[in-house]
Inverse folding.
């Protein structure tokens, strides 16, 4: 994880309810459908609770994926489809724009049971906190489109995927 220190976090997005975070240099790759896309030197994929904070305020978090784009006192409409746009999507666009905004990683703290706190410039933090003992993946750190081992954390601890190498956070 220390490889991220000093690198910019320049994009945040999601695939369904999986949140992804792009760090470091940008590079073009061919996606699995053959389309060209831009990825970071490193990616963090998160499938457990997470949030971005600034000082004492939650800027956005996993729960925002399931909320209407604008906060309201009205009940969530029965026909609301979070996959077509939600509060997280809106906030991520405001925070990072078209990739022109970025936040340098100042330091990283690994906590107990897979918890991560990534301190960013301007008093922002990305916090990840696995919450259950399931063997399903909670988060994954890897270099996209590079054939090497991924660092994976589940409720059962650190695992790895990819080439045969020891797993070290």
């Amino acid at each position: 994880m220390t490889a991220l220190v000093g690198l910019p976090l320049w994009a945040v997005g999601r695939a369904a309810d999986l949140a992804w975070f792009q760090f470091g240099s940008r590079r073009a790759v061919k996606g699995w459908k053959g389309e060209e896309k831009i990825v970071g030197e490193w990616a963090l994929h998160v499938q457990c609770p997470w949030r971005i904070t600034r000082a004492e305020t939650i800027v956005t978090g996993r729960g925002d994926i399931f909320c209407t784009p604008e906060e309201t006192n009205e009940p969530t409409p029965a026909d609301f489809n979070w996959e077509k746009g939600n509060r997280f999507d809106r906030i991520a666009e405001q925070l990072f724009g078209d990739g022109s905004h970025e936040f340098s990683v100042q330091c990283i703290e690994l906590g107990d049971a897979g918890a991560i706190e990534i301190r960013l410039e301007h008093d922002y933090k990305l916090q990840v906190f696995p919450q259950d003992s399931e063997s399903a993946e909670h988060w994954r750190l890897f270099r996209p489109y590079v054939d090497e081992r991924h660092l994976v954390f589940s409720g059962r601890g650190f695992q790895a995927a990819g080439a045969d190498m020891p797993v070290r956070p």
Observations:
- The chain has one helix and eleven strands.
- The mean pLDDT is 89.
